[in-house]
Amino acid sequence: MNIKNLANMSSSIKPEPAKGSIKTLIGLLPFLQPYKRQFLLAGLALIVAAAATLAIPYAFRQMIDLGFGSRGIGGADAAASTLHIDLYFLALFGVACILGVATAARFYMVSWLGERVTADLRSAVYAHVVTQSPQFFETTKTGEVLSRLTTDTTLIQTLVGTSISMALRNGLLFIGGMVMLFITSVKLSSIIIVMLAAVVLPIVFYGRRVRKLSRESQDRVADASALAGEILNAMPTVQAFTHEEIEARRFGTSVERAFHTAMQRIRARSVLTMMAILLVFGAIVFVLWLGAHAVVQGSMSGGQLGQFILYASLVAGSIGALSEVLGDTQRAAGATERLLDLLAAQSPVQSVLLPETLPASLSSCTANGAALQLEDVVFHYPSRPDSNALMHLSLDIKPGETIAVVGPSGAGKTTLFQLLLRFYDPQQGRITLDGVDIRFLTLSALRSAIGIVPQDTVIFSENALENIRFGRADASDDEVIAAAKMAAAHEFIERLPQGYQSFLGERGVRLSGGQRQRIAIARALLKNPPLLLLDEATSALDAESERLVQTALEAAMVGRTTLVIAHRLATVQRADRIIVVEHGRIVETGTHTELIAQNGLYASLAALQFNTD
Ligand SMILES: Nc1ncnc2c1ncn2[C@@H]1O[C@H](COP(=O)(O)OP(=O)(O)OP(=O)(O)O)[C@@H](O)[C@H]1O
User: Fold this and answer.
1) pLDDT for 528
2) Is the complex ipTM higher than 0.90?
């Protein structure tokens, strides 16, 4: 349980990972391992198909030399020749049948693998990303994560579903074809080998360039989608400032940049393909020219040359395909690198291996709430190491107490909540819940004990029932309705067109601010936590909403410890204690009356903040 080490772990993903090489693909092995059997079957189908392909030129030669050859033309041998033709055509058809079945089987297995591995990878990356701390989401754009989940996984799907099998098939055809070329004619094949060596070097060199451009191209696409994601999430602001055109132009520029980089990659890849084909075929045409001379001089039969031509075109085709596969594989290697980076991101806030448990009274909140202690807490955000957001903050809260937290903007009020939820760990000091250091609890045990009503409630694209059930997934409908009643949300939900079944739409656009807050309060009540964190909305509600929200909050505070970032007079007046925070320190503590009497920071804040009530 070395907390220091845990805290020091970096959560951010590397901004620019080391150069992607095909070796990176080894990182995919854990995702392939569960499907060894399918791989084996696909491999078998592949070998059968490759063997059938390689058998075709041989059958072809037999047909020419033995079927049409000098032995078979005219006279007594005519009957035997017909038999030969029948046999060899039958054999050829047999081979084609095997090729058809084996190719279909390979395609099926390999495509299945591609889809399966991609689905697993997507789920694994997503499951990992949702456990990351806020720090991660500060440094990684949502759009980029989405792009990795979609574009990058699709590249890997191409790799597993197509490229690997293409590489293996063409690799086999290349090796088998070369062996058969040597068997057919050692002299011509030796010449081909020498020429091939001269052909491969430029291809390898150019392949590197294509890989680099691939990576850049993916980055640009990710940039564009990150930009779009950010803007689409802020549409009302964008439109209120009439920024539609500017944003459309900005996105257009980003898309153009992606297009430009993609074009560079496509150009490089076209050159690569052209070079590969020209060089390989050039070499083969030259060798065939030599072969034609050999047939004329009688040192080679026509069938032999036919067979050689077919094998040579198989070999040439396989080299062409391999160079193309190399491009895809390199793109997939880049994608794998980016996905593995995401998977490797470690949240600095981790559950300890041997967690302590909360006292039973806390896990089922029936008692009075939780005791909470902050002991000399010092904290700075990882992105701002030289500016402490909280400084030597100590606080002792008894079970059932209601504490109002007041302070100027930027004082550290929200930060305090973030630490209580363990979105971050303090650099110094500790926080205990009923005497247990919260770092020794599992994250889920800690967060289950805390209910939060944020300033701005997120409403999911679900009906009202499910939106409240977000507070506790296993709550029954009756429990949800009971919580809604306590939170003064029942009436307005009943009045919605389909009552609790009403779809609240993306971001709950159909609900007013006060209604959203009551949904949030209902969620918290459903969770029934011993510790409640409220962040009162600063925006003014109309008198009726205000009254309803206050009623709901009062219901929510009963029987639990409550910390509330207060913006309303009613709240501070009801609080057992008010703590006044400034520059990350507690500067005043007391009740409303006491603090007003002190005539310090609180008194001046109260005069400003609460005068509308
Ligand atoms: N994610 C973050 N990364 C870096 N600094 C942050 C982050 N969040 C807050 N801060 C800084 O920490 C300090 C305390 O911020 P905090 O949000 O806790 O203030 P607050 O009292 O809640 O203010 P407000 O009432 O305006 O919400 C501020 O100086 C703020 O700029």
Assistant:
1) 86
2) yes
Rounded CA separation 508/516 (Å): 8
For residue 34, pLDDT over 70 is answered with yes
- For the residues of 369-405, what is the DSSP string, one character each? ---EEEEEEEEE-TT-TTSEEEEEEEEEE-TT-EEEE
What is the spatial distance between Cα 430 and Cα 224, in angstroms, rounded to a whole number? 42
As a CATH number, domain 25-344 is 1.20.1560.10
> Residue 243, SS3?
coil
Mutate which of 135, 393, 413, 586 for ligand 1 pocket (most atoms within 8 A of beta carbon):
413
Where in the chain are the domains? 25-344, 457-528
Fold of 457-528: Rossmann fold (3.40.50)
Residue nearest to atom 25 of ligand 1 (CA): 409
Grouping H, G, I as helix, E, B as strand and the rest as coil, residue 528 is coil
CA distance 327 to 335: 13
| Ligand 1 atom at shortest distance from the alpha carbon of 418 | 18
Query: From the CA of 411, how far away is ligand 1's center (Å)?
Result: 7
Confidence of residue 61 (pLDDT cuts 50, 70, 90): confident
CA distance 70 to 543: 108
Indicate which atom in ligand 1 lies nearest the CA of residue 134: 1
Distance of alpha carbon 599 from alpha carbon 603, whole angstroms: 5
* Cα gap 370→108, rounded to integer Å: 58
User: Sheet containing 436-437: which strands, arranged edge to edge?
Assistant: 388-397, 372-380, 428-433, 436-437
Which residues lie closer than 8 Å to 482 by C-beta, 6 or more apart? none
Q: Is the pLDDT of residue 230 over 60?
A: yes
Residue 391 phi/psi, 5-degree rounding, is -130, 115
3-state secondary structure of 38: helix
Give just the sign of the alpha carbon dihedral 536, 542, 547, 551.
negative
- In 457-560, beta strands by DSSP E: 531-535
Smallest CA separation from ligand 1 atom 26, residue: 409
Q: How far is CA 112 from the centre of its chain?
A: 21
Strand ordering across the sheet containing 531-535: 450-453, 531-535, 561-565, 402-406, 577-582, 585-590
Ligand 1 atom with minimal separation from the 412 CA: 18
Spatial CB neighbours of 355, under 8 Å, sequence gap ≥ 6: 440, 441, 442, 445
Longest Cα pair distance anywhere in the chain, in angstroms? 129
Per-residue model confidence (pLDDT) at position 236: 82
Give the C-alpha separation, 536 to 549, whole Å. Answer: 10
Pick the closest to residue 575 from 561, 587, 585, 588 (CA basis). 561
DSSP assignment, residue 22?
Answer: G
Ligand 1 mean position to 388 CA, how many Å? 10
How many Å apart are CA 251 and CA 259, to the nearest integer?
12
Cα–Cα distance for residue pair 382/275, rounded to 1 Å: 51
- Rounded to the nearest angstrom, the distance between the alpha carbon of 420 and the centre of ligand 1 is 15
Structure tokens at 164: 């690997």
